[in-house]
Design brief:
about 475 residues, elongated, 11 helices, 4 strands, four-stranded antiparallel beta sheet, alpha+beta
C-alpha cells in the first residue's frame, strides 16, 4: 500500500475519532473543600501519641497479651485480610488485560454438502496428492495457536490497573482501621472488667457493713430503743445490696465473654489484677496538630485512596466513548486428513487482523455508566471531607472530656473520703441514740452510690485516654 493510499484511510479515521471526542461528556471537577484547622485550641506542639506502638502505650501485660491474641484470631480482622487478598488478585487480573491473550485451539468437523452447489462442485474433485476421488463427506481437522490483544490507546486498561492498585492500598488501610478499633475495644472492655471487679468488692464490703448495722438494730429492738420498722428497713438495704452483687456478677460474665469473642475463642477466665485499677496511671496524651491526622488515621487515608480510585473509574468510563483497537492472529495447520496436518506448507494456516470499533448511535448505556462513575466520584469526595471533619471533632471532644473527667474524678475522690468519715460518725451517733436509723441508712446508701460512681469514673478516664489514642490514629503500628 503506497503513501497516498495510506493517507486515504487514515484521514477519515482521524476525522471519525475527532467527531467522537467532541461528543464525549466532560468529567466533573472534584476538589476537597476540607480546610482542617492549624491546631487544637491554640496548642501547636507537634508531639503526637499516635506514633507510639500499642505495646508501648499500654503498660498492663495482661492487656497486651489479650491484644496479641486478638490480632491473631479475631474474625473481623481475618475477614479484612481476605479483602486484601481479593484486591491483590484483582490487580493481577487488570494487569493481565494489558497483555495479549494467547491460547491453543484444536477442532474437528465433518460436512456433506449438496453436489449441485458451488461448494459441492468444488469439492467433487480428486485428492491433490494421490489422484483418488475425495469422498462426499469431508472432515476438517485443525490445530492452531491464537492471540488477541486490545491496544490500550486511551489508557483505559492502564487506568483500570491503577484503580485496582489504589483499591488494594485502600484495603490495607481498612485493615489498619480495623486493628485500631480492635485494640481500642479490647482495652475498653478490659478496663470495664477491672471496674466491675472493684465495684463487686465495694458492694460486698458494704453488705458486711450493713449486716453489722442490722445486728446492732436487732439488739436495740430487743432493748426497746427501736421498732421492728427499723429492723425491716436495714434488712431491705442488705437484700438490695445482695441483689446488686449478683447484677455485677452477671455484668462481669458478659464482659469476659465479650473479650473472649474479640479474641476469637470460647468463654474462659480473663487474666487480670483488679488491685491495679486505681493505681493505673493514665498515659500522657499529646495530640499534636490536626494535619497529622491525614497521615496517622487509617480511615482518612482509606477515604483518600477511595477518592483516587473513583476518579480513575470516571476516566475508564469516559474512555468507553472512544473506539477500541483490537488485533487478533492465528497460526497452525488445517487439513481434511490427519496425515496431512504435518504437510507444510500446504496445511499451513495463519491470519492477522486488526479492527477498530466504537459507539456511534444509541450510546445511552455508556452515558449512564459514565454518570454513575461521576456520581460515585462525588460520593467519595464528600465521604473524604466528612471523614476529616469527623476525625477532628472526635479528637476535640476527647481532649475536652479528658480535662473534665480529671477534675470530676478529683472531686469525686474527696466526696468518697467525706462520706467514709460520715459513715463512722453516723454509726457512733446512732449507738448513742443521737440520730435515728433513717440517717444511718441514707449515709450508707450515699456512700455506696458514690464509691460505685468513682469506679465508673475511673473507667471513663482510662477509656477516654484509649479513645484519644484511637482517634489520633494510634494502635495499628
Amino acid at each position: 500500500m503506497n503513501k497516498r493510499t495510506t493517507l486515504k484511510y487514515i484521514f477519515p479515521l482521524g476525522l471519525f475519532l475527532a467527531v467522537l471526542s467532541c461528543k464525549t461528556p466532560a468529567i466533573t471537577p472534584t476538589k476537597s473543600s476540607a480546610t482542617i484547622p492549624e491546631s487544637y485550641e491554640k496548642n501547636k506542639d507537634t508531639t503526637n501519641v499516635a506514633t507510639t506502638p500499642w505495646k508501648t502505650f499500654f503498660t498492663d501485660k495482661n492487656l497486651t497479651d489479650l491484644i496479641d491474641i486478638a490480632l491473631k484470631n479475631n474474625q473481623d480482622l481475618l475477614v479484612t485480610l481476605q479483602d486484601i487478598e481479593i484486591a491483590k488478585n484483582d490487580i493481577r487480573a487488570k494487569k493481565g488485560a494489558l497483555l495479549p491473550s494467547v491460547g491453543v485451539r484444536a477442532g474437528a468437523s465433518v460436512e456433506k454438502v449438496g453436489r449441485y452447489t458451488s461448494q459441492g462442485a468444488g469439492d467433487a474433485s480428486t485428492d491433490i496428492t494421490t489422484g483418488v476421488p475425495v469422498p462426499d463427506a469431508l472432515t476438517d481437522l485443525s490445530a492452531s495457536l491464537y492471540a488477541n490483544w486490545e491496544v490500550d490507546i486511551w489508557k483505559k486498561l492502564r487506568n483500570s490497573k491503577k484503580a485496582a492498585v489504589t483499591r488494594y492500598l485502600s484495603t490495607i488501610e481498612g485493615k489498619n482501621f480495623v486493628i485500631t478499633n480492635l485494640v481500642s475495644e479490647i482495652a475498653d472492655s478490659y478496663y470495664e472488667l477491672l471496674s466491675l471487679d472493684n465495684q463487686l468488692d465495694i458492694v460486698r464490703q458494704n453488705i458486711k457493713l450493713q449486716q453489722n448495722a442490722l445486728d446492732i438494730v436487732k439488739i436495740q429492738k430487743e432493748a426497746g430503743r427501736v421498732t421492728e420498722l427499723a429492723v425491716q428497713k436495714f434488712q431491705a438495704e442488705v437484700l438490695s445490696s445482695q441483689s446488686m452483687e449478683f447484677d455485677i456478677l452477671q455484668n462481669i460474665k458478659e464482659s469476659e465473654n465479650k473479650i473472649n469473642f474479640l479474641l476469637g475463642r470460647y468463654p474462659q477466665i480473663i487474666n487480670r489484677d483488679k488491685n491495679t485499677f486505681l493505681s493505673l496511671v493514665p498515659p500522657t496524651v499529646n495530640a499534636g496538630i490536626p494535619s497529622q491526622l491525614l497521615a496517622n488515621r487509617p480511615d482518612i487515608k482509606q477515604a483518600e485512596l477511595d477518592l483516587m480510585a473513583a476518579k480513575l473509574d470516571v476516566k475508564i468510563a469516559r474512555a468507553e466513548f472512544y473506539p477500541s483497537l483490537g488485533i487478533s492472529s492465528t497460526f497452525g495447520a488445517q487439513a481434511f486428513k490427519p496425515s496431512y496436518l504435518l504437510t507444510f506448507p500446504e496445511s499451513l494456516l495463519y491470519s492477522l487482523a486488526g479492527d477498530i470499533a466504537g459507539p456511534l448511535i444509541n450510546r445511552n448505556a455508556i452515558k449512564a455508566e459514565f454518570k454513575k462513575a461521576n456520581a460515585r466520584q462525588l460520593q467519595a469526595l464528600y465521604n473524604y471531607d466528612k471523614t476529616i471533619l469527623n476525625a477532628y471533632l472526635e479528637v476535640s471532644n476527647q481532649l475536652s472530656k479528658i480535662d473534665n473527667l480529671n477534675t470530676s474524678y478529683n472531686l469525686k475522690t474527696k466526696q468518697v473520703e467525706a462520706l467514709n468519715k460520715s459513715i463512722e460518725f453516723s454509726g457512733d451517733l446512732f449507738k448513742s441514740a443521737r440520730i435515728d436509723y433513717f440517717e444511718v441508712l441514707m449515709t450508707q446508701r450515699d456512700a455506696l452510690g458514690t464509691k460505685l460512681e468513682l469506679m465508673d469514673m475511673r473507667k471513663e478516664q482510662l477509656n477516654a485516654i484509649v479513645h484519644m489514642y484511637r482517634n489520633l490514629g494510634g494502635g495499628w503500628k
